[in-house]
Every structure is written in C-alpha cells, then in structure tokens.
Amino acid sequence: MKISKNIFQTLVVRGGVAVMNMAIVFLTLNVLGADGRGKISLFLTDIMLISMVTSVLANSTVSYHVPKTNIKPLVRTGLLWVLIISLVMGVVLGFLHNEYLQKHLFPISLLLGLITMNQMILIGKEKIKEYNIVFVLDPFFRLLVLLVGFYAFKTESLTVFLIALYIALGLSLIVSTTFVFKIIYHDVRKIEIESKEIFKYGIGTELSSFIQFFNYRLLFYVVFYQLGSVELGWFSVAVSVTESLWIISRSITVNQYSKILNTTDKLKQRIITNKSASLSFVLTLGAVLLLVVVPKDLLGLIIKKDLSNIQEIIWILCPGVLMIAVSNVWGHYFSGRGKYQINNLKSLVGFVLMISAAYFLTPKYGILGVVSAMLLGYLGSSLTLFGFYLADKKH
C-alpha cells in the first residue's frame, strides 16, 4: 500500500505533533494534578465550542472556495466573523464558567480562529508543506514554554499554561499570515463570491462539526458538573490518549480533501477515498493494538499519579476510535463534493445515541457509563456514514 509524499510528510509532522500534545497532557497532569488538568480541559472545551462557530466562515468554506474565487472577499468576511464571535462567546462562556482561565477565552479564541483561516487557505491552494509548518509550531512552542516555566522558573501554576498558549499561537499567526499574504497578493482573479454563498456552505459543513463537537465534548461538561474537575482531569487524559490516534486519519484526509477539491471526476474522487480509507484503517489498527497492549506499569512511568481507571477507559474507547478514523475519510469525501447534509445527519445520529445512553448509564455507572455512551456515539455516526458511502456508489 503506497503512501504518497504529501501523506508521508503530513503523517510525520502530525505524529510529532501527537507526541508533543501527549507530552503536554502528561506534563500538566503531573505538575498541576488532576484538578489542574480538569480546569485546563474545561477551558479547552470552551475554546473548541467557540471555534465551532467561528469555523462557519473561517474553516472548510474557505478551503472549498479558495480554488474557485478571489481570496480577498473570503478573508474580509472571515476576519470580521472571527472577531465578533470570539468576543461575544468569550464573554458569555467566561461568565457562565467563571474560572481563572476563562478570562482569556476571547483573545485565545481570536488567535486560533485567525490561524485556522490561514491554514484553510493553504489547504485550498494545496500548500501542504506550509500548512504542516504552521501546524507544528503551536504544540512545539507550547511544550517548550511549559518546560521552561515549570522546571527552569519553578512555577507550578495555570499562568504558565496561559503564557505558553499566547506565545505559541502568536508565533503561529505570524508565520501563517506570512505564507497567506503571498497567496493573497498574487491572486488577481476577477471572480468574487457573495458573502451569503460563503455563509451557506459554511453553515452546512460546520453544522456537522458543531454536532460532532457535542458528540466528542458535551460529556466533558457532564463530567465537570456531575463528577467534578478531578474526575474530568482523569477522563480528559484517557480521551486525549485515544483521540491522539486520529492524527493518522487526519494526516491522510488533509491530502485526500485537498485532491478532491481540485478534481471534478467522481470516479477519481472515490479511488482517492478508498485508498485513503484503507490506509487509515491499517495504520490506525496497528496503533490501537499497540495502545491496548501497553502494560499498566509502563503507563505509570509516564503518568506520575494514581492511574485510577484511565486504562479501562482507553480500552472501552478504542473500537470507536478506530471506526471514527475510517469514517473521517468518508466524511471528507462528502464535504469535498459539497454534500455536507450527509455529515450533518451522521453527526446527529451519533449525538442522539450518545445523549440517550449517557442519560441512562451515567447515574448508575458513573465515569464508565459516560465512556460507554461516548463509544455508542462513535459507532452510530460511523456506521451511518458508511451506509451513505455505499449508497453513493450506486449513483
């Protein structure tokens, strides 16, 4: 099974990013404890929620329209949207959760939204190398600043985490803007698209991501409010470990999605998708098997705290993580062809299954009930998407 140069480069980059992100998770857990890690997880979940809304005009709609129209209207519309949404939602969520980190929701979500928009322009122009450079900057400098703050300056506080975020995102924005400025400057195409068309595609594609966000992260809020920040800390670590395996699928879909956007041949699109799905399954399965057989003693060398039931959570989630890794490829196939309604439906199916299961299982089984509900959501959405992909072949 041949791996293209772009996929290989992206896999290497994202593999490195996955290692750095895991190092950040374990580092903050070991230094700040489960309570500190839980508060960071709540903050990052709020950031993700804001990002889901800013992505309506700053994510896939940008990469989709970049090959088809002048980039300048996309940038103007996206900039204004990211600014307004980051401000409004940052203030609202900061008021609702009233934690120390939440005071910084607006500036952090603004930086992240602008970086995301720049990255989508790079994907739309098939600038995978530049995209990968930007992608690796954030976790690298975040980890570096955390290490310096925790160990060189002997400061064990959430403030160090905030400083690391600001430095990493600030540098990423500068570099990505430099790449994108060159593209915008040389774009002299006369074709421009109306803002309503940008919004129409964006709301259609991101509705799926918005529902999917609740599939992946609504249970974080459930754990925080019902079981507390300490339980959320442990839960978030286990989820982070398993979801890190998606780095393989996401590396493959970056290349797949970019190619689908730049061809109208349906047969070619399906060939690209089938190869991508097979590659994602094989590589992710290997990673899942390695994760499952990791001895508890070895995991204990990395996590310098009571492991609690982290390993049990990981085992439960692994089948669903494998299914999502493959279904992500099918989802990008439909997104690339503008059939975002299918992704919306599969996300909704997963969401309904997860919420229904959580309602019945959480009161009786606690954290394991939450994990089982998450697994059912993974499986439901993946199987739904698989059914649509098979049906699409007949048309």
UniProtKB/TrEMBL annotation:
Keyword list (alphabetical) reads: Cell membrane, Membrane, Transmembrane, Transmembrane helix
The answer to whether the entry has keyword Glycoprotein is: no
Q: How does it sit in the membrane?
A: Multi-pass membrane protein
InterPro entries to which the protein is assigned, alphabetical: Poly_Biosynth_Transport
Organism (species): Wenyingzhuangia gilva
Instruction: List the subcellular locations.
Output: Cell membrane
Protein's UniProt name: O-antigen/teichoic acid export membrane protein
Q: What residue intervals traverse the membrane?
A: 12-34, 40-58, 79-98, 104-124, 131-153, 159-185, 272-293, 313-333, 345-361, 367-391
State if Transmembrane helix is listed as a keyword.
yes
Q: What is the lineage of its organism?
A: Bacteria, Pseudomonadati, Bacteroidota, Flavobacteriia, Flavobacteriales
